[in-house]
């Protein structure tokens, strides 16, 4: 058992709590982790966790947001710098999300736990990014660059859920005959997806 930390640096303490919480939540999910476990792993008291985060629920939300922040910032920058909508940005967004998940297996496990435990909270960044992405798709549809007979939110959700499921279930489907590499799957998915959202004749 770790001894409670004596540092008076609030930022370092907060970071240590976040790191310990991330590791525990990744391994056990939200429901199974206790405040005592969190305090022990971080080397702090339970009261100090409450001081910095208020509750286990708010710490869980902070961990999820921290895991998503890197992708959120990069994707929002792509949307803001894109200028006129075009199909190339949609393809680049799929690739960016896929590679973010591939490079961040802890984030994949956190997302999986939220699904398994029926976590209905939708973080501000998640909702903001989905809204911005759907609005960009809607504008592209209005310009005739993407098919207009599909809900723009569904278009974004399709690639988000496909990429997420690929990594969440990889331990199972990687043994299927002929599955190939991550990049081979991404290449084929993009062929299917981009053809599916192309304008109809």
List keywords for this structure.
single chain; 201 residues; mainly alpha; Arc Repressor Mutant, subunit A; Tetracycline Repressor, domain 2; 73% helix; disordered N terminus
Give a brief description.
By secondary structure, the chain is mainly α. The protein has helices at 10-28, 35-42, 46-53, 56-81, 87-103, 105-116, 124-142, 152-168, 170-173, 182-197. Helices cover 73% and strands 0% of the residues.
The largest β sheet comes out as: none
CATH-defined superfamily of the largest domain? Tetracycline Repressor, domain 2
Number of domains: 2
CATH domain class of the largest domain: Mainly Alpha
Compute the separation of the termini in Å: 66 Å
Q: What is the fold named in CATH at topology level of the largest domain?
A: Tetracycline Repressor, domain 2
Unreliable stretches, pLDDT < 50, 5 or more residues? 1-6
Protein structure class: mainly alpha
Task: Note the total helix count.
Answer: 10
General form? globular
Assigned CATH architecture of the largest domain: Orthogonal Bundle
Beta-strand portion reads under 5%
The percent of residues in helical segments reads over 70%
Number of strands: 0
Radius of gyration: 20 Å
Order of helices and strands: HHHHHHHHHH
What is the residue-averaged pLDDT?
91
Could you explain the architecture of this structure?
This protein folds into two domains: 8-54, Homeodomain-like (Arc Repressor Mutant, subunit A, Orthogonal Bundle); 64-197, Tetracycline Repressor, domain 2. It has ten helices and no strands. It has helices at 10-28, 35-42, 46-53, 56-81, 87-103, 105-116, 124-142, 152-168, 170-173, 182-197. The longest helix has 26 residues, at 56-81.
